Amino acid sequence: MATVKISALPGPATLASDTLIPVVVSSGPTTQKSTLAALRTIIFSGGSGFASDVLGIAAGGTGVSGTPTNGQILIGNGTGIASLRGLLKQRIAAGRMRNWLIFGERHRQHDFFYQEEIEAWHARGAIARLDLAFSRDQAERRYVQHCLDDSAEELRTWIAEGAVIFVCGSLAGMAPAVDASLRAILGEDALQDLIARSRYRRDVY
Question: Which strand ranges, in their side-by-side order, compose the sheet holding 200-204?
């Protein structure tokens, strides 16, 4: 049975498959205490952070997030930015700067989570492209899928160059709208190929 030491836990600790451990889970600007089980098989739809990789390795796996060497297109809304931010931090730390972030919420003034960090990454080129959609800041509602529609040709170029798409956020509204835009822009066959090769990943709730 594979094990891994978790230095973040109080005192020496070892995590094995089927072990329950108390953890603090961050899903946005706030955190909550929870309990996770290390499982031998992990089935997921979307990217993950460091903790998920640790749990996967502990259960005899290889981790689940990965860091694609080509471009990465991150699309999300609301607290979904927390997971996308984790993926960005991982890639930036590895020196991989071809990142395209598309984020949407209601109001820029109140709902642009991690604004300073994201804008700083963009300013220094760690985020190659940044598109924002704040739906209530203008008379006509604008959402993340509209950013995709407006950038169809560039999206095709990124995909042709090997980019991976990550979507994180609302299951109702955002996720199906983004999926519809991707199918319209790339075509059904191309999207199914991305899914088959784990290049279109979703973590929606």
Answer: 129-134, 99-105, 72-77, 164-169, 200-204
